[in-house]
Design brief:
The structure is a single chain. The chain is α/β, with parallel strands linked by helices and 388 residues long. Helices cover 36% and strands 14% of the residues. The protein contains eleven helices and 13 strands. It has helices spanning 3-13, 38-51, 59-77, 90-100, 121-124, 145-151, 174-184, 278-294, 296-316, 342-351, 373-387, and strands at 26-27, 84-87, 108-112, 132-136, 156-162, 187-191, 210-214, 226-230, 321-322, 334-338, 354-355, 357-359, 362-366. α2 (38-51) runs antiparallel to α8 (278-294) and α3 (59-77) runs parallel beside α8.
Length: 388
């Protein structure tokens, strides 16, 4: 990155109170929950201040920010804004897929055996409808494309898979997987929460049918926010798993509501649910603007460069073992490593306010746009102490 871009990251870092050195916190845990920055908090406070009196009209501003979310959400994944809807979490869009796709008794859903539960339980619920669920065995805790293709049978209808695996940061080759899905006539559904906002993605090139992400992690928004994508050509073929009075266009005319013949939106908006959480809508719009100003490509480069420092140290150590893939095509902003005393190390890091996660027996480090080299150096200081 050039000096101007590096300066932008430094300026953004100052908008995150947890980076204040006086707090003594080193936050390396965006794969769990992303911290709120000042612009997001200010958006929340503006709404709550106004909501104490309710003398102004909130709908116009909220619907404008909803449209901003759709446009920026589309931009981050290479979609069109009419393919994007506001959701409340990753599971929202995954449920649209599970209960909206035209599936019938005897059909088969393919899942990885190392999925986060939010991408499992909506599909398991389909067993009550006579739909079969088949888990594809992973290889060394990575999704195995060859095993996936061999698992496809005559009744296979859907593959639902994470963009980035939550516990080791493995970035799946969605383009290659999408090609296989098209070849065999499978719907391709993607849980995008661990990659959206920090990894480059072209959703059309990858031939994804439905994509869903929560916004509380890498999109740096409050809990209870997110968005989903439904491929334009698929929208009219999906069954409506649920419907809302805001699945149709009232054109903000809420003084004349005795209309029961309005058509559903001719876009992904018809799958949204209202009434919307206006405070969180404003906050999410502010967070997405911050990400857009830096650019996802720049964020990816920034995050990888920080992890490179950690990787170099781990490679030189006889104590620690990297369990994430270091293949450039499968790297993300998550890096996991372990040791014979990984659990004790996690507690030591926690006691020193180096905040990360312990997943599947490994330390999970997740760096994001507000982190800088000083955060990695503080982590390394603890690793060196623990090693000696």
């Amino acid at each position: 990155m050039n000096k101007e871009t590096m300066k932008m990251f430094a300026e953004v870092r100052r908008n995150f109170p947890l980076t204040d050195q006086n707090k003594g916190i080193t936050y390396l845990n965006s794969a769990s929950t992303g911290p709120l920055c000042r612009p997001v908090r200010e958006a929340l406070e503006r709404y709550y201040d106004a909501a104490q009196f309710l003398v102004s009209e909130h709908d116009t501003a909220a619907f404008a920010d909803l449209e901003k979310i759709r446009k920026l959400g589309a931009k981050f994944i290479g979609a069109d804004s009419d393919e994007i809807g506001f959701g409340f979490h990753t599971g929202f869009g995954l449920n649209i897929a599970a209960f909206g796709l035209p599936l019938k008794q005897g059909d088969e859903i393919l899942l990885s055996d190392i999925e986060f539960p939010s991408n499992v339980y909506p599909w398991l619920a389909l067993r009550e409808r006579g739909i079969d669920i088949r888990f594809i065995e992973s290889s060394d805790h990575f999704f195995d494309i060859d095993k996936f293709e061999r698992a496809i049978g005559s009744k296979s209808r859907v593959l639902s898979l994470s963009f980035v695996q939550f516990f080791n940061g493995y970035k799946n080759d969605l383009k290659k997987i999408g090609e296989i899905c098209r070849k065999h006539g499978l719907y391709f559904v993607v849980d995008g929460i661990q990659g959206c906002g920090h990894q480059i993605l072209d959703i059309h090139e990858c031939q994804v049918d439905i994509f869903s992400t929560g916004a509380q992690k890498w999109l740096l928004s409050p809990l209870g926010t997110g968005y989903f994508y439904v491929r334009r050509e698929l929208q009219n073929n999906l069954q409506m798993p649920f419907a809302s009075w805001l699945s149709v266009d009232w054109k903000l005319n809420f003084g004349d509501l005795f209309h029961y013949d309005l058509p559903y939106f001719d876009s992904a908006r018809k799958f949204e649910m209202g009434t919307y959480p206006y405070a969180h809508v404003h906050a999410m719009a502010a967070a997405l603007e911050l990400i857009d100003n830096l650019g996802v490509e720049n964020i990816q480069k920034h995050n990888h460069s920080l992890l490179d420092i950690l990787i170099d140290y781990l490679k030189s150590s006889n104590t620690y073992t990297v369990v994430s893939s270091l293949d450039k095509n499968h790297r993300s902003s998550i890096l996991s490593f372990t040791s014979s005393r990984a659990g004790d190390l996690f507690q030591e890091l926690k006691s020193r306010k180096v905040i990360c996660s312990f997943r599947q027996g490994a330390i999970r480090i997740a760096v994001h746009l507000f982190n800088d080299e000083s955060d990695i150096r503080r982590l390394l200081d603890v690793l060196e102490i623990f090693e000696n």
